[in-house]
Structures are given as C-alpha cells and as structure tokens.
Model the fold of this input.
Amino acid sequence: MSSDVIALASDHGGVELKSLLKQELLQAGHGVLDLGTEGSASVDYPDFAEAMAEAIRQGAAGRGVLICGTGIGISIAANRYPFIRAALVADVTTARLSRQHNDANVLVLGGRTMGAEVARDCLKAFLETPFEGGRHQRRIDKMGLART
Ligand code: RB5
Done:
C-alpha cells in the first residue's frame, strides 16, 4: 500500500488550485497521484470523487485532496464511500480539527472560494496533524465508517 502517496483530483472549478498544490507537494518530496482533471473543459465532480475513492480503496494512495468550485459537490460525492472521510474546510483550524477529531483521509477545498495561501496552510495542517483517537474513534465507529 502506498500510504505515503497523496492523491489529488478536481473538476474544472479546482484545476488551478490542484496544479498549485501538486507543485507544492512535489517540492516537499511527497509522492503524488494526480487523478485529473486537466484543463478547463467542463467535467462532472462525482467522477473525480469516484476516482479518489478507488485510489484509496486500492491502496494507491493513503490520503487525498479533492477540489471543485466550492468543494461542496465533490465532498458530498466522496462521502458516499464508507471508507472516505472527506472534510470540506475553509480555514486552517478546521483543517487541523478534521484530522484530530474526524481522522479525515481526504481534504476538500473550494477552488473558486479559497485563496492559494490559505489552501497551502490547510494542506500543511491536514498532512501534519495526527488523529487523537479515544472518544473521537468511538464517534467514528458509531457512523460505521471504516478506517483505512
Ligand atoms: C461546477 O461548475 C461547480 O458546480 C462545481 O465545481 C462545484 O462547485 C459543485 O459543488
């Protein structure tokens, strides 16, 4: 399992931010799996949420970043898969807490709603913050969500 690989996927509303974060991750020495989209042609965000779910299900990546225009559609789509805990965040505190309390394995960002600097900081917090377990694991277990 390539648990240290980070998968990235977006629709056309997130393609610019995806490209920026991909460069950031590569420069920091992370393994990256880019699941598309490429370019500005209109595509459907559920297809990219599905690609992310498949990559994580198969072990090609341990964590992921999903981006659409607002992050809303692609987070709804991703959370339909029981082993995905996708957290739509808009600030660094929420990104940190998505790891500490929710053991999020997918960070979701809005490509049209979030500035590049905040997005970089959210990604850093997401990658560097461990899950606290304990009572938070109990709550995750109550939702019937598998830990990957
Ligand atoms: C695509 O135009 C847009 O609807 C999508 O990126 C996303 O914002 C949906 O939630």
Remarks:
- The helical segments are 15-27, 45-57, 72-78, 92-100, 116-128, 135-142.
